[in-house]
Design brief:
Layout lengths: L1 H21 L6 H21 L5 H22 L7 H20 L1
Helix pairs in contact: 1-2, 1-3, 3-4
Family: Belongs to the drug/metabolite transporter (DMT) superfamily. Small multidrug resistance (SMR) (TC 2.A.7.1) family. Gdx/SugE subfamily.
Main location: membrane
Subcellular location: Cell membrane
Length: 104
Amino acid sequence: MAWISLILAGCFEIVWATAMKQSHGFSRLWPSVVTICGMIVSFALLSWSMRSLPLGTAYTIWTGIGAVGAFVIGIIVFGEAATPMRIVAALLIVGGLVLMKLSS
């Protein structure tokens, strides 16, 4: 259950990061509300997963899911550049996540 909680926490990190972008500096109400609620859920799930997972593993996986997810959303939703170097960087993050999971 801790791993499922951690993956969900990472997904909610993607939600709140995307909503924060859409809030335009917290000047739009509903994206701001989604940002804050997403943060609360994400942190709560991360905290719950850390009860049984090592700190370094949990935090690395959580931030990695958020980083790669935000990268993908940026490309798909916001039309950000998908340059070869950015893609390789994202793949390196995914590789690090896989190694972190295998080591724990």
